Amino acid sequence: MSDYIPDEVLIEILARLPVKSLLQFRSVCKSWNSLIANPSFITAHLNRTKSNTTLPQLLIIKYTSHIQNQEHCISCSDDQTFCDEFVDLENPFHRSGKSFKIVGSCNGLLCLSDYDGSGCALLWNPSIRRFLTLPESGYPVGDSNLRFVFGFGFDHRCNDYKVLKIGYLNDFKTGGSVLCKVELYTLSTHSWRPVCVVDFKFKFFINTSSAFVNGAVHWVAFDPAKKRGSGILIVAFDMGNEVFREISLPNYQTNGRLHTSTAVAVLGESLAVIDFESDLVPTDLICNFHIWVMEEYGVIESWTKRYSVIGQHIFSNVLGFRRNGDVLIIQGGLPGELVSYDPQSHQIKYHGVYGNSFYLYTYIESLVALDAADGVWKSHGHPSSPNIVANQGA
Q1: Please, which pLDDT band fits residue 264 given cuts at 50, 70 and 90?
Q2: DSSP code of 374?
């Protein structure tokens, strides 16, 4: 019997395997290594992983521990074992000692940026433990008067990953800021280029979150020319057309409560908005959350209130959503604790993860960037030996 396996059969078999196994199989022989690193195979493996609904989604959680003020980045399976055990990831910013935040997640790649305002950003695939520091853009390095807003996504038309960088210059005369420039990085060229914008009047909130939905990155922003409250809206940047557009928020009814903040999120595959309001009472601050979903993308009339969390003074922030419908929320102040809230039963599950500066994004394991040739992708750690930790109150 011949031991020859046709390529199409081998590809079909290997495309079903997890990333960890594929990384190990690269050392079997040169032909397997070449096949697994082939861009066509990487795409086939990614598409199969994305279409496999039986796989639990992964959640990447970044937070600063209340113990020794250390930053952590962990990966958890979104199933019945959620947060009981997790993979403690060594993030690329760890060795530099810089604080960082997660800009976005797409097809197994994460975009990270630093907290110190220098505008440093990188792309990171935790599954294969490789990262790429983005080159310096046209902004002056080390200018403390600059602040940046980032967005990350995928352009399916040209099969390329892009990072948007919006720079603002502090205006000390007015106490505000003015738009400096907008630049776009593409992974295929490993370079930045300017984006032409006309009459860009929007300002972004500090450390605003972003959501990549329907080929566009979304942020909550405001128009300073309008009255306080009425000028808040969603700004979207289409990664394919490379243009900005406005999206109106749902028609909130505050009922006299104090509207404190709004954030964008992804719920399933839909654009969602988390509306935060509070009641000032003599003894405490009672927080209410309303989750709105845009049922039909781009249709303002399709905003639908999915559910509300009312009168829970112990909750301080909404991070995101689990596949089972639970809302991931931070309970308490500093430090806060990560909890799951079931909006149907109103039950709370405590996960024993304490800290502050939480970020959360969904994530899938992929081989993206294994074939990278542009730029200088660096490896750290051994990709087949993740540090799996049992949760004992992280």
Answers
A1: very high
A2: S
CA-CA distances (angstroms) from residue 122 to 83, 99, 100, 151? 26, 13, 10, 12
What pLDDT digit, counting tens, does each position of 203-240 carry? 888 778 899 999 999 999 988 877 665 678 999 999 99
Q: Which of 300, 180, 188 is nearest to 250 (CA)?
A: 300
**Contact (Cβ atoms closer than 8 angstroms) between residue 142 and residue 153:** no
Strand order in the sheet with 146-155: 146-155, 160-171, 176-186, 191-194
Q: Which residues pair with 182 in a beta bridge?
A: 166
Local confidence band at 282 (pLDDT 50, 70, 90 cut-offs) = very low
Residue 211: the pLDDT is 95
User: Exposed e or buried b for every residue in 146-170, given b needs 16+ CB within 10 A?
Assistant: bbbbbbbbbbeeeeebbbbbbbbeb
> Which of 292-331 are b and which e, b meaning 16 or more Cβ less than 10 Å from the residue's Cβ?
bbbeeeeeeeebeebeebeebebbbbbbbbbeeebbbbbb
- DSSP-derived letter for residue 135 is P
Domain residue ranges in the chain: 1-55
What is the reported pTM? 0.88
CA-CA-CA-CA torsion sign (343, 251, 362, 295): positive
**CA-to-CA separations, 235 to 7, 168, 223, 247, in angstroms, rounded:** 46, 16, 10, 6
- Chain Cα centroid distance, residue 322: 14
CB of 189 closer than 8 Å to CB of 374 = yes
Residues in the chain: 394
For the four alpha carbons of 29, 33, 38 and 41, in that order, the dihedral sign comes to positive
Is cis: bond before 140, omega within 30 of 0? no
Q: How far apart are CA 217 and CA 154, in angstroms?
A: 9
Chain-centre distance for alpha carbon 20: 23
> Which one-letter amino acid corresponds to residue 46?
L
Q: Is 44 exposed, middle or buried (0-12, 13-18, 19+ CB in 10 A)?
A: middle
- Confidence (pLDDT) at 370: 75
The predicted-structure confidence for 24-78, as pLDDT tens digits, reads as follows 988 888 888 899 999 999 999 999 999 988 887 888 888 888 777 778 888 888 8
